[in-house]
Amino acid sequence: MPGNASPIGTVTRGTTGHNRLRRVDRWIASLPVLRRTDDPLVADVGYGASPTTTLELRGRLARVRPDVEVTGIEIEPSRVALANAATRDGVTFRLGGFETPTPDGRRPAVIRAFNVLRQYDESAVVGSWRIMQDRLQPGGQLVEGTCNEVGRVASWVTLDREAPHTFTVALRLAGLDVPSIVAERLPKALIHRNVPGERVHAFLRDLDLSWAVAAPLGTYGPRQRWIVTVAGMRDRGWPVLHGVTRWRLGELSVPWSAVAPA
Fold first, then answer.
1. What pLDDT score was predicted for residue 88?
2. Which end of the chain has fewer CB atoms at under 10 Å, N or C?
3. Which one, of 71, 111, 105, lies nearest residue 88 by Cα?
């Protein structure tokens, strides 16, 4: 546990809003570590100008782990002072950054860091990941990514204590034009890599092609079209993870190695 050193990081815009992080919260709720751990502590790094999304996270996770505790962490003191008024059973707030200070120095089972690194240089990503990874308990997971202002377009990387292991796209399917809209909301580690010759560029190209090929299935609704799209990605050779249960949520996950920077 870090001591009383200065928080690691810089103040970012702090934009937030109700239900913005619902897609990634649903993912976190499915992580096996949340059910198995003896210490269900979750850290929300960089919750922003309002504690809204931290409170929502606790509510969603409590449905699968009623004794879950969530600690919201912010680097801006005035934001922490505001959030402290919202402290309640199972939710606390602390001043800090990527070093992830927690009650009594406990190690989190999960760390969520969303829409934070987006505002940093790409060169800061791996070092910031490493600081947070080092704070995880055995079996713990770090979920770092980005979404748009209303949470309809999102993507994230999930890491364990050693390395990133999956990349996930999550989209609102109703009204979706092309899946590559997620290019605007890729994690910082990938957003500048969407250029020819990079794996993530090929991934998004094939995703749009699969979506176009599945267009006739739109007659049965966007969800069915997406399921066929994801199956099409698998047929194109992409190592698609999970199955229809998660695909129907508008998700598509692949191993990190499939899209990692070349």
1. 81
2. C
3. 71
Q: 117 and 124 in contact (C-beta within 8 Å)?
A: yes
Q: Which two tokens stand for residue 172?
A: 């609102």
In this prediction, residue 15 carries a pLDDT of 64
Average pLDDT for 177-201: 97
DSSP characters for 165-215? Answer: EEEEEEE--TT---GGGGGGG--HHHHTT-STTSHHHHHHHHHHHHHHHTG
Query: Quick one: pLDDT band at residue 19, thresholds 50, 70, 90?
Result: confident
Percent of the chain past pLDDT 90, that is, above it, reads: 87
Average pLDDT over residues 137-154: 97
Report CA-CA distances (Å) from 35 to 30, 131, 174, 243. 9, 24, 31, 20
Q: Which two tokens stand for residue 220?
A: 């049965």
Instruction: Output the DSSP codes for 53-117.
Output: HHHHHHHHHTTT-TT-EEEEEES-HHHHHHHHTT-BTTEEEEE--TT---GGGPPPSEEEEESSG
